[in-house]
Amino acid sequence: MEPTDIAFIGGGNMARSLIGGLLATGWPAARIHVAEPAAAQHALLHQLDSGLQVGDDNPAAAAAAEVVVLAVKPQVLPGVARELAAVVQPRQPLCLSIAAGVRVADLERWLGGAAPVVRAMPNTPALVQSGATGLYANPRVSEAQRARAESLLRAVGLTVWVDDEALLDAVTALSGSGPAYFFLFMEAMQAAGEALGLPAESARVLSLQTALGAARLALESPEPVDVLRQRVTSPGGTTEAALAEFEAGDLHGLVARAMQAAHRRARELADRLGRDA
Questions:
Q1: Tens digits of per-residue pLDDT, 129-139?
Q2: Nearest Cα to 116, choosing from 149, 90, 140?
Q3: Domains and CATH numbers, the chain
């Protein structure tokens, strides 16, 4: 896609990840503008490429951009969006929000009215270009703007569009919070491996590589994960014995209840942020 000017409002970890992904695809550094108030972050940004346009003025960064990436904490987004309203309203650039839990209607209100908005729910593996991002576009987003939003997020992983904004709460419960679920499971596997006598480092690398290998196998195989599970579960074997324990502990029900809790909390936080701002 033809490079255009992109402004990042906020230069933290996720913004740097997206910028790094853009640079890796050949996006010119001079066409990436970043507004970040913390001077320490400026040095980290320039480590990516000294040609990045880095400053601390939000409206100035957004003034010439065709895409404005809102990469600040949800609590400060209302003030930031109101500050950008005078720039956004006459020019109508694509506003791409990666702030968790901020609904499009609230964002439009803070931006001063109708605006093309894409709301994205990335996850932390985007920091290593292995992210999974859910995307929702309001009706004012053009096809070209949808393509640009998708191109930007695909620079750090895969993307999935949803037609109903409410489904982003489900995305949050699954892939947004999901890395922590797998970290917890890997933590438990490491501890169990140590309890069985393995050295701590051996238990660590075996559990991490097993998780990586299983994910890659599932992504690259045409078979669904239940078929893959069945193929490595020999009748009367060790895997079957372990899986029987998981089922006895109602693993499926536990996962469902955990994700339902995350889903409820995502909705509660969005309600509170919209109400308080």
A1: 999 999 999 99
A2: 140
A3: 6-171 (3.40.50.720), 178-265 (1.10.3730.10)
